[in-house]
Every structure is written in C-alpha cells, then in structure tokens.
Design goal:
77% of the residues lie in helices and 0% in strands. It has nine helices and no strands. The chain has one domain: Orthogonal Bundle (Tetracycline Repressor, domain 2). With 185 residues, the chain is mainly alpha-helical.
C-alpha cells in the first residue's frame, strides 16, 4: 500500500476520533471544522478533503461507533445460551461510564438522525441488522417470539445507554434478571 494511502487513512481515522471526542465535549451542533482539525492535529482543509461537511464527518464517526457497539453486543449475546448471553452483554456494556465521548456521540446521533435522512437510514439499517442477528440467535435457542424479543432487547440497550448518559450511577446489571426471564420465554 502506498504511503500516501496509508497516511490518508490515518488522517481520516484521526478526524473521526477527534469528531467523536468533540461531540461529547461541545455537542453535535457546536463542532466546527477548525475544532476538529485542531484536535486531530491536521490542517483544516483536510477535514473537507475527507468529508463533504461537518455533519457528514459526525455521521461517519457515529456510524463507525454504532456499528462497532452493535456488532460487539450481538457477538457477546450469541456467544452463549440466552440467559448467559444477557449477563455477558450487560457486563460488556458496563464498561461504558455514561460520560464516554462515543456514547454521547451516539445519543446525539440518534437525535440528529431526524434531521439527516442519510444518517437516519444508515442507523436504521445497523439497528435492523442487530435485531435480525439477535432474533436468529434467539430463534436458534428455541425462544418464542424471537423477533419481538430482539426488538425489546435492542430498545432496552438503547434506553440503558441513554440512562447511563444521564446518570452514570445506572447499573446495567440490575435488569439482568428481568431480561434473562424475557429470553427464557
């Protein structure tokens, strides 16, 4: 791979990381090209070289994190039978404090998605894929109403993450019992 391609990929990653950090600090609407460039340690022109706009950059950062967290959650769930998968998923999610820049980015992205149709469509696709993977896992384990329960699990994860963003004392594990009973059918 040519050095310029590798350098360009690194710069793009630096911009995405900087944007994710900044949304958590100043909010989606206050992130500017200048702030991102300063945080990433690059020339401001590179922001628009890699992304058509700041909302495009923020959307890309949010989608990168959403894909990662949803994939990790689905993989953790599917690594065990349903009740144990719930415990593992909640333990895994507990690493997020509620003040993590990426979780704050995700919370703001859900709100911004109503104003940005491309972001909304991409987030909806990621969430639908997550629900499908979880429904397949539940169905394979013989759980009745697997699709409905996958929807409830997805909504529960979203709600828990939002609650943790508001109150970092929220302990995800307190809902383990009810969620285990839900997937036990």
């Amino acid at each position: 791979m040519p050095k310029s391609v590798d350098r360009g990929r690194r710069t793009r990653e630096q911009l995405l990381d900087a944007a994710a950090q900044l949304v958590g600090e100043v909010g989606w609407g206050a992130v500017t090209t200048r702030l991102v460039a300063e945080r990433a340690g690059v020339n401001a022109a590179l922001v628009h070289y890699h992304f058509s706009s700041v909302p495009d950059l923020l959307s890309a950062a949010a989608l990168r994190f959403a894909e990662r967290i949803l994939t990790e959650a689905a993989d953790v769930l599917r690594s065990a039978e349903p009740a144990a998968g719930i415990d593992r998923m909640l333990d895994d999610l507990s690493r997020y404090t509620g003040t993590d820049p990426e979780l704050l980015l995700l919370a703001e992205a859900f709100l911004a998605a109503h104003r940005l149709p491309e972001l909304r469509g991409a987030l909806a696709a990621l969430v639908a894929d997550f629900r499908g993977r979880v429904a397949d896992w539940l169905s394979g384990a013989g759980v009745k109403d697997a699709e409905a329960i996958a929807l409830l699990l997805g909504a529960a994860i979203d709600g828990l993450v939002l609650h943790r963003a508001l109150d970092e004392s929220v302990d995800f594990r307190v809902v383990a019992g009810p969620l285990r009973r839900l997937v036990a059918g």
